[in-house]
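Have a close read of the entry that follows and walk me through the local backbone shapes. See right below:
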Amino acid sequence: MALVQEMQDRVVDVSVRDLRIRLAENPTEVEASQALRYHVFYDSTPAKPSEEMVRLKRDFDSFDPFCDHLLVFDETRGATPEAVVGTYRLMRRENARRRGQFYSSDEFNIDPILNFPGEIMELGRSCVHADYRNGATMQLLWRGIAAYVFHYDIELMFGCASLPGTDPTQMRDTLAYLHQFHLAPPALRAQAQPDRHVPMDVALDHELDVRQAKQSLPPLLKGYLRLGGFVGNGAVVDADFGTTDVCVVVKTDWVTDKYYRHYRREDQAGPGSARTPDPGKPKSL
């Protein structure tokens, strides 16, 4: 009975075959997610960890204690840190208030998002172990986010999405495409901080190849756009991570009705039904 009650009390608890997604429930699990982040962000990229991160082999910052950490576990690996194979960091308005700001505020003026009357959530620090970068894992991550959204009645999601590289001139077509076709309406349009603003509405000396620009988008950013997401005005170079960031915002009621109905049916049916893989999978991030 205790195990059944624990599953019912969890905000997120979905299993598909050997993978399970839920929120971190103790400091050890948070540290396991930070270790995965370190491995993905720093071991094979130009990102620059701090000396303390190198010593501990974990990616962490002052926002972590104020966030919920969504974790994907490979249950065949047992109760070990290596069982955490995917993660997402989630921060709601009340927790950002306790921290003093959202993470995105360092790069973008997000006042239009903060002025939104409903519940909002910042998504960040998304990563998946290289051996698990497939549609099934990403779909499970999104199912976890969907359950979290339903539980807290979140109406707006946002966060920094990254393009690889720190030379905006090498991604002029991509930035121009995002600005031309996916610019957020003024009421939801974040602005890159003035001292870090990289123009996206650049004048091209050639006709924009829309198809090529779409193909150049990272899978995660492409996924947000498929969900009806928009980008803010201006990009920001993040030298520490070796990326160029844009601010993405998604209204959760713009996700397809079919997609929402599917997850609402699972929520109403209880945790047992969520353990059965859905044959009609939504588009993955």
Q: What stands out?
A: The chain is about 35% helix and 20% strand.
